[in-house]
Write a structure and sequence with these properties.
The complex is a heterodimer. Chain A contains 7 helices and 12 strands. By secondary structure, chain A is α/β, with parallel strands linked by helices. Chain A has a single domain, classed as Metallo-beta-lactamase, Chain A (4-Layer Sandwich). Chain A has a 7-stranded mixed β-sheet, with helices on one face. A 5-stranded mixed β-sheet of chain A has the order 8-9-10-11-12, with no helix packed on it. In chain A, helix 6 packs antiparallel against helix 7. Chain A is globular. Chain B has one domain: Helix Hairpins (Orthogonal Bundle), CATH 1.10.287. Chain B starts with a helix and ends with a helix. The relative contact order of chain B is 0.17. The chains are: A alpha/beta, B mainly alpha. The interface between A and B is medium-sized, with 19 and 20 residues.
């Protein structure tokens, strides 16, 4: 599994994990992120059960297990958090932050030791050692209870399924051309995102954030000028197209 | 491929649930037999005495089936927990063989996981032994049911005009006992396959 440090400032860093060439063919490729601040770290969307062992192994190259104090699940999907039952054995003292809406569903993945911390609909701010992370509402994008993570110091927005693209496992890490990349995102966004109103609300709020990097859960990451181009593209894209 | 224990235990619970339903039918048979015996009066004194045994037997089978059912369901849950702990242990072992800077930090959760696995494994083995004993106990009830069925037939033969109805009841007991025996045999055979 590829592990890339996408931001580093002293003991504050973001590491992206993904592009796992060993995963089974039928499994969608996912990006997992680790944010570390001093001796505390949070794993964002730690992934599916199939990914647990390579993911744990990759993470232990950067931080010891006891320093992974927090987990975050943007929503309830299996590619996001079906590995929970195994993380529950590996990180018995960790806290899982996830939408309140999904608590009783996510617990089906098995969670006896990890503490569930419900994120209210309006979001919340988490202090991780000396940095603050904002859980930004992204409801209906695509899940009915959904959050993204914004790090105002690193100026990174982990945007979950927004900005996701279905690409081969050896695709480049960064978006380098919006017109070709948008073709890879179109179908996914149009089908998976159900609400134009939710989309416009999200775009309006995200335009107010100071972002140097947008990091989705699938596919390539965005840097300026492609972040602005993505927001323009997404703003005008009709979604929820399965209703005929 | 071996059938996982949690599937076996759940299948045993299902068999015992069926046995319990049959036993409830037997309890109903006992009630019908008693009503008939009351109506028949002195002609069925012997049969009337037997109805108490049928009723008692049905209650015993229901109670025992419910107990075994509970044991099986518990076992199935414990087996799932063991499967999860085993899977985690297997993944932890794989990770520990990789060249990671912080593998040592996994030692405590790994040891806890292995200990949990051992404990669950012990609990599961004890539970399986108990299940085996309970199923053997169930066989005794079937032997009793057969004795009652035979006695019922004997008593039915001397019940004059009630003979036909009492024979139906006696056959009913035999049929039910057979069905319960089949469920118990399936349960034992499932247990033997593990």
């Amino acid at each position: 599994m590829l592990a890339t440090t996408i931001y580093e400032d002293g003991d504050h860093r973001w590491i992206m994990f993904g592009r796992d060439t060993d995963k089974s063919d039928g499994i969608i490729d996912t990006n997992q992120y680790l944010i570390q601040s001093g001796d505390e770290a949070i794993l964002l969307d730690p992934g599916g059960i199939e990914l647990f062992a390579p993911m744990l192994s990759a993470v232990l190259k950067f931080v010891p297990a006891e320093q992974i104090t927090h987990l975050f699940a943007s929503h309830q999907d299996p590619d996001i958090i079906s590995s929970l039952g195994l993380w529950d054995q590996a990180l018995p003292n960790a806290k899982l932050y996830s939408p309140w809406l999904w608590e009783s569903f996510i617990r089906h993945f098995g969670m006896e030791r990890i503490e569930f911390c419900a994120i209210p609909d309006e979001g919340l701010t988490l202090t991780l050692n000396i940095i603050q992370l904002q859980f930004v509402p992204a409801h209906y994008l695509h899940s009915s209870g959904n959050f993204h993570v914004y790090d105002p110091k690193a100026k990174i927005l982990m945007s979950g399924d927004v900005g996701a693209a279905m690409e081969p496992v050896d695709a480049p890490l960064w978006v380098d051309d919006m017109s070709s990349h948008s073709q890879k995102m179109r179908g996914f966004h149009q089908r998976w995102m159900p609400s134009n109103e939710a989309k416009l609300d999200w775009v309006r709020r995200v335009r107010n954030l100071d972002i140097d990097m947008m990091a989705p859960q699938h596919g390539r990451l965005f840097k300026p000028p492609y972040i602005g181009e993505f927001l323009d593209w997404f703003e005008q894209l009709p979604v929820g197209v399965a209703i005929k | 491929m071996n059938v996982p224990i949690f599937v076996t235990a759940a299948s045993i619970a299902a068999e015992l649930h069926q046995a319990m339903l049959e036993a409830k039918g037997l309890a109903l048979t006992a009630k019908n037999a008693r009503a008939l015996a009351v109506r028949a009066g002195s002609k069925t004194v012997g049969f009337k005495a037997i109805t108490h045994f049928i009723d008692e037997l049905a209650s015993d089978i229901i109670r025992q089936s419910q107990y075994i059912n509970g044991v099986s369901e518990n076992l199935s849950q414990q087996a799932v927990m063991l499967w999860r702990a085993s899977m985690a242990a297997e993944k932890f072992y794989w990770v520990s063989q990789q060249n990671n800077a912080f593998n040592e930090s996994l030692t405590v959760p790994m040891e806890q996981c292995f200990a949990e696995k051992e404990e669950l494994s012990g609990t599961l083995q004890r539970g399986l032994r108990e299940l085996e004993q309970q199923l053997e106990e169930g066989e005794k009830h079937i032997r009793t049911a057969n004795l009652i069925a035979t006695s019922s037939k004997v008593e039915a033969s001397s019940a004059e005009e009630f003979r036909g109805q009492l024979e139906v009841i006696a056959n009913n007991i035999t049929d039910t006992a057979d069905k319960i025996r089949t469920h118990l045999s399936k349960a034992r055979s499932l247990l033997g396959q593990r």
